Amino acid sequence: MARYQTSGILRGRERGQRRPEHLTERRSKPPIVELRQASKVYAGGHVALERVSLRVDRGEFVFLVGPTGCGKSTLIKLLIRELEPTEGEVLIAGKDIATLSNDRIPYLRRRIGTVFQDFKLLPSRTVYDNVAYALQVIGAARSEIRTKVPDALRLVGLADKTKNYPDQLSGGEQQRLSVARAFVNHPPLLLADEPTGNLDPATSVGIMQTLYRINKTGTTVVVVTHDREMVDKMRRRVIGLDAGRVVRDQAAGLYSDEESTREFAARLRDELGVEDERY
Ligand SMILES: Nc1ncnc2c1ncn2[C@@H]1O[C@H](COP(=O)(O)OP(=O)(O)OP(=O)(O)O)[C@@H](O)[C@H]1O
Ligand SMILES: [Mg+2]
Predict the structure, then answer these.
(1) pLDDT at 274 over 80
(2) In this structure, is residue 135 part of a structural domain?
(3) How far apart are alpha carbons 54 and 275 in whole angstroms?
(4) Whether the predicted pLDDT of 12 surpasses 70
């Protein structure tokens, strides 16, 4: 009997039917982001996205680039169901988010950190409270807030500005604060729409370094940007849109995962000709 079972297992392996469990799991885990033939036509008939299909795997760092008006922000809005596709499907971690009932949407957004160009900071609250607020609204315990907020502020290099108000910060610091707020709950997915839009090159490197550091913790990061030079230097995956269609999908450059965040920032500064080290 025992012999029969053993040979049964062997036969199964020989036919490729049994795989070690960790391999089976990796194979079956759906991508964190998937668009299937997704189109978005705005009221009035403008086609902002046309049959876009793409997948982003867990842990990736992806740039989304393309000329103004090509549909980048529209795509980001589809991922948090701020907009719904006119046709096609948007899946997050394998789930078609069109099927979520309205009362599940906050749970979806809790798992996705977002950084927008206009920061959306609360002007009457301090740096600390702006980040703490993101946890308070989801009912986090006080003890959790007390540890997570300083951690997030340290991560973005704002540990010494906790008592400042947003209007007492530079543009780059405000942007880093919005990154801290998006990351404080350690979401599996972080979306940043033009996070370096109006910032100088040295500050932009700082923001990219922060996003890279966040990515190294395992969070998948999708960054929309116009900064062609930065994209070329970073050696990450690049998805290009033009007039609502995917026109480029370029894999990450060799060895990109092996750089430490310091090496990464030093290389970027060097290649972009940026002298000062901000933080
Ligand atoms: N609410 C809307 N109603 C109608 N058309 C819209 C709406 N929002 C965006 N559009 C149009 O859809 C197209 C894509 O807009 P989107 O904001 O996605 O572009 P983008 O790639 O993010 O551009 P940018 O780089 O300038 O931010 C644009 O032509 C825009 O004018
Ligand atoms: Mg945009």
Answers:
(1) no
(2) yes
(3) 37
(4) no
Residue from 72, 198, 227 whose mutation best tests the ligand 1 pocket (most atoms within 8 A of CB): 72
Model confidence band, residue 230 (pLDDT cutoffs 50, 70, 90): confident
What residue's CA is closest to ligand 1, atom 20?
69
Percent of the chain with pLDDT over 90: 64
User: What are the backbone angles phi and psi of residue 240, rounded to the nearest 5°?
Assistant: -105, 135
Q: How many domains does the chain have?
A: 1
Distance 130 CA to ligand 1 centre (A): 29
Q: How does DSSP classify residue 70? A: S
Would residue 146 count as lying in a domain? yes
Q: Provide the domain limits for residue 152.
A: 122-186
In a domain, 263, yes or no: no
Instruction: Kindly report the pTM of this predicted structure.
Output: 0.85
**Within 10 A of 275 (CB to CB), how many other CB atoms are there?**
8
Residue 234 pLDDT exceeds 60 = yes
